[in-house]
Amino acid sequence: MVFTTFVNFIRTRGPDEFWRKRKIFKLSAHFLGRRRNCYSLAIRNVHRALQYATKGRRLKKRDMSDLWSARVAAGCEQHGISFYTFMESLQRCNILLNKKVLSELATWEPRTFEAIARIAREKAEIEGLPDVKNQHVPSGVITRGMLNMDSPNTEGCLLANGQGLCIQARGKAASPESSGILVALSEQASKLEPNSKPPTIILDYSDMTCFIQKHGVTTAVYRKKK
């Protein structure tokens, strides 16, 4: 008796080898040169890429955590409280926000973050936690408060750096081209009393009043209507 179909019971490597190589070539499709279509080169580079991807997943988590901590720490410094005291105060207030959410609030919702920082400061003062400082703006730091237009009769404001270049202008402020003249006025006024706080220059017009005030290396100009 002859079994003519015996060859069907023998496992061939043809289809299996094709699909195994196809899986590697799909992973190496974005490589350059022979690394994308030469199997002996592609499989080595794919294995190396997968090893780096495994390491990169851990490094990405660490880098994002450091980024969130830096953003929250910068917001805490702006509101006069250290990062660790801020986080400890939130825990004691039962405000369960992680660093990712706090960093998003510090970046895109500064007023919400300011309210949370105020709660943390009050809790830290009650509990006697350290590193609660008086609010101050470091020299040369531009804050959102310098562009505050919430005060009544304020029509516009302008910020200029020490070189006389306009950084930002809102509303009906002075012309950005005149920022150099305004910075020169504030610097000359500061030379009158070098050891005291820079004075506020008031330019009185018939229908408006301009206030020029120097904050470190930054000069702010406010325009108010009468």
UniProtKB/TrEMBL annotation:
<keyword id="KW-0687">Ribonucleoprotein</keyword>
<dbReference type="GO" id="GO:0005840">
    <property type="term" value="C:ribosome"/>
</dbReference>
<protein>
    <recommendedName>
        <fullName>Large ribosomal subunit protein bL20m</fullName>
    </recommendedName>
</protein>
<dbReference type="GO" id="GO:0003735">
    <property type="term" value="F:structural constituent of ribosome"/>
</dbReference>
<dbReference type="InterPro" id="IPR024135">
    <property type="entry name" value="LAMTOR5"/>
</dbReference>
<dbReference type="InterPro" id="IPR005813">
    <property type="entry name" value="Ribosomal_bL20"/>
</dbReference>
<keyword id="KW-0689">Ribosomal protein</keyword>
<dbReference type="Pfam" id="PF00453">
    <property type="entry name" value="Ribosomal_L20"/>
</dbReference>
<dbReference type="GO" id="GO:0071986">
    <property type="term" value="C:Ragulator complex"/>
</dbReference>
<dbReference type="GO" id="GO:0043066">
    <property type="term" value="P:negative regulation of apoptotic process"/>
</dbReference>
<dbReference type="Pfam" id="PF16672">
    <property type="entry name" value="LAMTOR5"/>
</dbReference>
<dbReference type="InterPro" id="IPR035566">
    <property type="entry name" value="Ribosomal_protein_bL20_C"/>
</dbReference>
<comment type="similarity">
    <text>Belongs to the bacterial ribosomal protein bL20 family.</text>
</comment>
<dbReference type="GO" id="GO:1990904">
    <property type="term" value="C:ribonucleoprotein complex"/>
</dbReference>
<dbReference type="GO" id="GO:0019843">
    <property type="term" value="F:rRNA binding"/>
</dbReference>
<dbReference type="GO" id="GO:0006412">
    <property type="term" value="P:translation"/>
</dbReference>
